[in-house]
Amino acid sequence: MGDTRDRVGKAGVFVAGGAFRIALYVCIVVLIIWIGRVSYQFGHDIFDQQPMSPGEGQEITVVIKEDDSVYDIAKTLESKGLIEDAKVFWVQEKLSNYKGKMKPGTYLLSTAYEPARLMAIISGDAEQEVTEQ
């Protein structure tokens, strides 16, 4: 009788261990799919630049201070509704020709501008600047 109980106990442990492994594998697969989806979306947002408002857009005045970092500039643009995500803009700036070229000043920007155009204006390569500090 004790031998039967030991076999049933071992079988139960084996089944429970197998179920745990399956659940673990399912969780790992779901995690990998989620990471892949988030990474793809982030990359898509970086390389598929879209304006916040297609068409005419709304003009907004933005002041960039002397000591603002690129991320500070991105947070300002995000808070004004000119870009969707400050982190994406920060990466776009790092990958663009405007890396490290953004200048302080007061700018008249439109929600119809793509992020690359915003970078060009703030870097002084485009004509939408109101006043330079």
Relevant terms:
133 residues; mainly alpha; Dna Ligase, domain 1; 2 domains; three-stranded antiparallel beta sheet; 4 helices; 56% helix; 11% strand; rod-shaped; disordered C terminus
Q: How does this structure look, described?
A:
- Helix 1 crosses helix 3 (86-95) and helix 2 (70-79) crosses helix 3.
- The chain has two domains: 1-48; 59-131, Endolytic murein transglycosylase (Dna Ligase, domain 1, 2-Layer Sandwich).
- It is built from four helices and three strands, in the order αβααβαβ.
- A three-stranded antiparallel β-sheet has the order 1-2-3, with helices on one face.
- Helix content is 56%, strand content 11%.
- With 133 residues, the protein is mostly helical.
- It is rod-shaped, with a radius of gyration of 26 Å.
- The chain has helices at residues 2-47, 70-79, 86-95, 115-123, and strands at residues 59-64, 105-110, 129-131.
Q: What is the gyration radius calculated from CA atoms? A: 26 Å
Separation of termini? Answer: 91 Å
CATH architecture of the largest domain: 2-Layer Sandwich
Identify the CATH class of the largest domain: Alpha Beta
pLDDT average, as an integer? 86
Profile the largest sheet: 3 strands, antiparallel
Q: How would you classify the helix and strand content by structural class? A: mainly alpha
What is the CATH H-level superfamily of the largest domain?
Answer: Endolytic murein transglycosylase
Q: Helical percent range?
A: 55-70%
